[in-house]
Amino acid sequence: MSVQDTTDILDRLAGVVPGSALDALRRERPQTRDNVQASYAALFEAPDETGVTPSERLAVASFVALLHGGVPVAAHYLDLLEAHPDGAALAAAIRNQARQAAGSGPYGAYPPGPLSREDVAGPVFAVEGADRAALGERLSAALAHAHRLVLHPRDAAAADLAALQTAGWSTAAIVTLSQLVAYLAFQIRAAHGLRVLAA
Predict the structure, then answer these.
(1) Distances from the Cα of 195 to the Cα of 11, 75, 78, 146, 198, angstroms
(2) Is residue 73 within 8 Å of residue 13, measured between CB atoms?
(3) Residues with Cβ < 8 Å from 121, sequence gap 6 or more?
(4) How many C-beta atoms surround the C-beta of residue 188 within 10 A?
(5) Sequence-ordered list of residues with C-beta below 8 angstroms from that of 161, at least 6 positions apart, any chain
């Protein structure tokens, strides 16, 4: 069965109506459409091979979507998260952390040189207090990593990866987390662009 014969996540998030001009436009690029859907399936539906649980994936995706202000996308992942055992409490903690972590970004400093004039200082995020105890060291470290990739992309350093490993993330799992954050950035912007085209 072709991916085009299944429910398309980007169509759903963008509110693309079957048979509409926008639907026809998307179907003009079947390979692109299929690849976007296949990426979603690999990150959120395929059996795990890297040690990142489904609830961890959904928690990080929800957090990233909230940081980006992608309301329909965040609602999608939060709904999926809440369907998991103890998901409602986890979703509430993610919402709370996203409120505390919100910012305009991107922040960070370039190496000394002509781009240094674009340096922007910004808050560094870490899960604290009761939410850290509730989320655990592993997920707390994952949220800090996601925040860094979204709002401090040029500040990433080897020490940040070491912190993830100390919290229990394998190299393969860190790659999966980073892929997830990158996919969400694309998905949110693509869904928003499609909604604008449909307006």
Answers:
(1) 10, 16, 20, 25, 5
(2) yes
(3) 107
(4) 21
(5) 174
Domain chopping of the chain, boundaries = 7-198
CATH number of 7-198: 3.20.20, 1.10.10, 1.20.1290, 1.10.3470? 1.20.1290
69, 189 contact by CB (below 8 A): no
3-state secondary structure of 104: coil
| Sign of the alpha-carbon dihedral angle for 188, 92, 131, 164 | negative
DSSP 143-161: HHHHHHHHH-GGG--HHHH
pTM confidence score: 0.90
Tokens matching residue 33:
């459409």
**pLDDT tens-digit map of 75-114:** 999 999 999 989 999 999 999 999 999 988 889 888 889 9
Residue 96 confidence (pLDDT):
94
pLDDT at 109: 85
Instruction: List CB contacts of 110: < 8 A, sequence separation 6 or more.
Output: 116, 118, 119, 154
Closest by CA to 43, choosing from 190, 182, 192, 171, is: 182
User: Quick one: three-class SS letters along 116-132?
Assistant: HHHCECCCCCCCCHHHH
Residues in the chain, pLDDT under 70:
1-6
